[in-house]
Structures are given as C-alpha cells and as structure tokens.
Amino acid sequence: MTKIFRAASLRRDGGEHSAHRGGALTRAGLGLAALGVVFGDIGTSPLYVVRAVFTVHGGAVPLTDASIYGVISLVVWMLLLIVSFKYVILVLRADNDGEGGIIALATLLRTLSGGRPRAAALFTVAGMFGAALFFGDAVITPAISVLSAIEGIRVALPAFPATLIVPIALVILLTLGWMQRYGTGRVGAIFGPFMLLWFTGLALIALPHIAAHPEIIAALSPHEALTFVGRHPAIGFLAMGAVVLAVTGAEALYADIAHFGRRPISAVWFVVVLPALVCNYLGQGALLLAHPEAIADPFFHLVSSQWALVLMLLATGATVIASQSVIAGTYSIARQASRLGYLPHLRIRYTSASGAGQIYLPDITGLLVAAVAAVVVIFRDSERLSSAYGLAVSTDFLLTTAMLLALTVIGWHWRWWQSAALAVVLGAVEVPLFAANAAKLVTGGWLPLLIALVLMVVMLTWRRGEAVVAATRARTEGTLAEFAAQLQKNPLRRVPGTVIYPHSLATTVPAALLATTALHRSMRDHVIILSIKTAPQAHIERAERITLTQVSPRVEGVVHLTMRYGFMDSRNIPADLEWAQREYGWGSWKLSEAQWVLSHLGVRSRGKNDDAVSGAAPAADTGDFPQLPRWQAWLFARIARHSASPAWVKSLPADRTVEISREVIV
C-alpha cells in the first residue's frame, strides 16, 4: 500500500502564506487591492447610518445636541470594539489553513472537536446558519447601498423626479449582475485606487465641519456614549438598532483574509479606513449641531449643492464596488458550502485563466439579482430598507463570537477566566445590539431572517437527503472485498484499456462498475476506483493528496485511489491523476485514453413518479433507513434535479465520460 497523508494543521499566523501565494505583490499592493475588495460595504455605511439612527422607529431618537454626541460616540466605539478589537485583533487570527469566513471557522472547530459527534454536529449547524445569514445580508446590502447613493441626487437636483430613483437603481443592479459572467479582472484593477479616492473624500468633506465645530471631538470619548445610554436607556436602546449599520461588512475582513493576508488588511483598516470613517461621522455630527434640518440627508449635505452631484456619482461608484464585493463573497461562501456538502454541486465558470478565485456562478447570480431587485421594488427607499437591515448582522456577530470563544478554549487553550472576560466584553456590546435589532423584526427585520431560514431548510434537507442516498448506496452496492472475492471465484474476461470510476464512498463498489461487468461479462485490464474527498482544511498540497491501495492482492489491475482536496482548492482531477502517475510511477495506465464512467443516482420522492430525476435502472428503495418526510423528499428531489453534472464539477473530458444512472427513492 502506498499512502501519502497530511493531518490538518492549526495555524495562528492569519494566513500570511496565503496572502503571498502570488509572490509578486508587495504589501502595499495587497493593501490597495484589499481596499477595493474588503472595505466596500463598511466604507459606504456613512451614506445612511446617521440618518437611519434619527429616523428609526419613526424618529424615536430626538435630534438634540446630547443625542448627536451620544449617537456619534456610539458609532465610533462600535467601530473600535467590534471591528478593530474583535475582528482585526482577534478573529483575523482564527484562520483555517489560511482561509477565513464563518464556514471556515466552523470547519476548523469541527476538526478540533476531536471527533465528538455532538460538538461536530453543533459546529456544522453553526456554520450552515452563519452562511445562511450571510446570504440574507447579501440581498439587502447592494439594495440599500445603491439606493442611498442614488437618493443623493435629491440634494444636487431638488426638482429631480423621485419616481426615477428606483428604476435607476434597478438598472445599475441588473447591469452589475449581467456583468458577472465576464469577470471583474479588468475593472477590478481600478477598485483599489477608486476606493482610496472614496475614503480620502470621506475625510476631506468632513474636516471643514469638524474645524467649524471642534466640540464634536468630545464624541471620541466613550463617556458620551455611556452617558447617552445611561440617561436615556430606552432611546439609547432604539438607537443601537440603527447604529449596527455602521459595522455591517465587518465580516468581510475575515472572509477575505486568504486573498490579502492579516497584516495588509489590518494595516489598511487602521491607517486608511478607520480614520476616514471616524472623520466622516464626526463631520456629520458637527453638521447636525449647526444645521439640524440637514438630517434628511446629512452625508450629502456635507458638501454644497454644487458638489452634491459629483459626490453622488462618486458614491454610486463606491456602492457598485461594495455590491461587487458582496457578490464575490457570496460566490466564495456558496462554493465553500458546496464543497463541504451543505449545498449541491454548483455550476462554476472561471472568468480568469490566472485567478482561481475569479469565478462566476450562474445559478447563484440569478437568484441573488432577482432577490435584490425584489427588495428594491418592495421597500423603494433606503430609509425604509434600513429597518430590515441589522438583525441578521447582529445575529451573525453573536454566532461568530460564540465560535471565537470556543476556539479560545479548544484551539488556543486560553485560561477559563480569559475566555470569560472576553465573553463579558463582547457580550456587553453585541447582546444589546441583537436585542435592539430584534425589535425591528416586524418592521422589516424578518426579511433577511426569512431568507436565512429558507436557506437553512435547503441546506439541512440536502445534507439529510445525501445521507439517505449514501446509506442506500452502501447497502445495495456491496463492499470492495465482496467484489474481489466474486472476481476470484468467477474471473471476468479482461480487455485492453484503462477505465476510471469516480465514486463517493471508499468501501463500496461503484454502481457503474457493477452494471458494466454484469452487462458485458468483461473488465478492462486497468480499473481505477477513484474517491474524491473534501478535507476540513482549506488547502492540501498536491503531493499530499493521494492514497493508493490495491483492492486485493489476488486481483490484478484493480486499485482504489483516494484524492483529498481542501475545501478551497481548485480541482482538475485528470491533471492531478496524470501528475501522480508520473511522480510515483504507478502502473501502466494510459490516462490520456482512459474512459471515465460515473455512477449517477437520480432521486425521486416515494409515490411521486413525476419527481424522477433520471435513471435507466430500477429504483433502489431506502428500505430500513430513515425516510424523509414527504415535503423534504419533494424538496430534495428538486434540488438534486438542478445540481450540476459531476462531469462538470470534476473537469472530466467530455468525449471520454459517460454516466450510468439509476434511481433511489427517498
């Protein structure tokens, strides 16, 4: 037996090796690139945050000097505590083999749980729920960002028809969705410089107002926030429901760590983004101290009406970039979820020959664009939409904090009092944020939560359905040992050539192999049973992916290969197999002429013949295995119907690949 294996590693360097995979980019270049990808969402929050606070729940927060100081102080300290302390200082160190994001964190914790079933199941569900919450946010973020930017035209051109704002926003968003198929490689090069201009502008337009009312600098003190909440707890509670909008997008810092690395992201945050955001919020506060009537749109009133149109165009560009970042993040999360078995196989198109991360997912794009357009049409303006924003974000914050605390215990081995102290500090901020946003449930907060719950049902249905199918296959296909014994007892005629049977289970016989041997009563000289596994770490080096075993020493030419990939690795199965044969001198396989035969199990729900997905062979019943409820079986059958072909997913040669199908009843 030849075996090459690498155990999952626990790293705490924040993915620096991932950031430097290209080797050619300097840290400054990475920082500039990160500026255009990572910080778009949080960088466009000044467009609507301050206005949202003073209009939340019908204007429950009074526009007084004390409230202005308190609100701006709350915003500043949310940026410092949640983004700077929690995400930049702590969470960015919690990478999974260089990858970030809530799914990567959940997968790391599942690995560290040591095989304890309950803990592994808990972390799996947490990762699925976190991904679902991200998708819920991804629907609202482009809508509120683009609407907020377009609404600035009312300051520049007061006579502009308000009825045109929604159509303009829809055109921008639909065009953005249409452009995804062509990739962002060319225009992506200008994202960083454009966002540098944006953040510079955020600070510059605010400085004159701060200079005119320097007393606003007092809002930098946490005393102002604590005094505001302490003296007016009910009002402060309601204000926190909108203040959370200032830190939406914080999770992007963690999700994109693999592309840019912890140090460039941290440096850009502290040197460029945080100072610009703080300046702008202070400037809006200073403006409201002098001109409370500007609350209708305090961001665009930072400049004179002559410059408002220029600022609107700049803001529109920034929100388009922010929306593009959200779409790219959605692609990344969806691919991770698919690789880890939370979602079915997805159609993935690579839009760049040099960038494995530049992908286009047609199905995800269609669903996302349709959902965003529906949200724009339903809510129609950013003020109403802000009532729907925040609940999913604050829930995601709590979920990330809970998993971070678990990591400090089982991964970083902190003392109990250290983890407890961190829980108190973060809980004191995030629990009130969650409670305040829960109050918005009936005014729109239900929307992202509903999206998340629907996606949770889809993911749980897919995992459970796949488990039923796997159990059926294990029972009906027979073991490799039984197959080898049968070959010894009744040898088959061997014909020249090589055939490869991709197979998801390691110990059973591919259904396609059973079908072809039963039909032809013969077998190729070289038979490779190939299992492709997704490991819980993000990346596995090519030389460490493959395990080769002989099915039986008495059966010549039949081997079992296992290829293990990280959940973020690009996959080219034929190329990796040819590399392994050259590297290790395995067999006399003619891989360039080999035939690939897939075992495709179609799915239909019990008693619903029209639910059949495919299948030439008689259906296999799941028998004694747990049955899915009828509604879940119906849903699973339809998800399976729209799953991408395995030949597409595994990059197999189309002219030498066939599928042999059968049905399984769930």
From TrEMBL:
This is Probable potassium transport system protein Kup. It is a multi-pass membrane protein. Keywords: Cell membrane, Ion transport, Membrane, Potassium, Potassium transport, Symport, Transmembrane, Transmembrane helix, Transport. The gene is kup. Its main location: membrane. The chain crosses the membrane at residues 30-54, 66-89, 119-144, 156-178, 190-212, 232-255, 267-287, 307-334, 355-379, 391-412, 419-439, 445-462. Belongs to the HAK/KUP transporter (TC 2.A.72) family. It catalyses: K(+)(in) + H(+)(in) = K(+)(out) + H(+)(out). Transport of potassium into the cell. Likely operates as a K(+):H(+) symporter. Residues 32-484 form the K+ potassium transporter integral membrane domain. It comes from Actinotignum schaalii FB123-CNA-2. Pfam families: K_trans (PF02705), K_trans_C (PF22776). One of its GO terms (cellular component) is plasma membrane. GO terms for molecular function: potassium ion transmembrane transporter activity; symporter activity. It is found in: Cell membrane; Membrane. It comes from the Bacteria. InterPro entries: K+_transporter (IPR003855), K_trans_C (IPR053952), K_trans_N (IPR053951), Kup (IPR023051).
